[in-house]
TrEMBL record:
This is Uncharacterized protein. It comes from Zooxanthella nutricula. It comes from the Eukaryota.
């Protein structure tokens, strides 16, 4: 409660600062403050909703685990523990992704205020590349979760042979996906370097180098 109250007070102060800048006619500072405060308010609201959902989900998981433990359902208990761990891991990954995206947006706005054309274009391209990489990792994690869930289901049914085959298939799928992601990442890095060189030439008005 205290952290959310402080965040709201800080947002209110920043909005007042934005209004003061608007009164002085600082258009660039106003736009930057509006974007920054919109992000703060949005993140605060999403954090509150996510915290509420996690609490509700945690209560439901604990109740389910207690019921299964009382009934002596060992397999179901282990599956519930695994599910709870996976939910916590996904929440941590989502939080890191949101923080990286926020930092990228702030960098773009800061460079835009300075009129840094080359830096703005490069930062925009970098943010796009980061988003594409995050989407690729999310797809990989989704595939791994589906395969692990299938393995847990077979283990609960006592299908030992099916479990071993599923684990091997899951490992192979993840390994191949990581290899493809590594190749794509190197290709994106080369493309990013080429575009960065073209942007630098464009900004220095090196028409001959740009055409070449």
């Amino acid at each position: 409660q205290g952290a959310r109250w402080r965040a709201r007070c800080k947002a209110t102060q920043n909005v007042e600062l934005a209004l003061q800048r608007w009164e002085r006619g600082t258009q660039a500072g106003l736009l930057a403050c509006i974007l920054s405060q919109w992000q703060v308010v949005k993140d605060t609201c999403m954090l509150e909703r996510a915290t509420a959902r996690r609490k509700d989900g945690a209560h439901a998981v604990v109740e389910s685990m207690l019921r299964k433990w009382q009934m002596g359902d060992t397999a179901g208990l282990l599956a519930s523990v695994f599910q709870a761990w996976r939910s916590c891991w996904e929440a941590a990954v989502w939080a890191r992704t949101r923080e990286n995206a926020r930092l990228s947006v702030e960098l773009v706005v800061a460079k835009w205020e300075r009129g840094d054309l080359e830096g703005l274009l490069s930062a925009t391209l970098h943010a796009w590349r980061t988003q594409a990489a995050n989407e690729g990792r999310q797809h990989l994690h989704w595939q791994a979760r589906q395969n692990v869930a299938l393995a847990v289901q077979k283990w609960e049914r006592g299908n030992t042979l099916g479990l071993a085959a599923s684990v091997m298939q899951s490992w192979y799928t993840v390994a191949m996906a990581e290899a493809r992601e590594s190749v794509h990442r190197r290709q994106r890095e080369r493309a990013h370097a080429q575009v960065g060189m073209m942007l630098r030439r464009f900004c220095s008005k090196d028409d001959v180098g740009l055409v070449a």
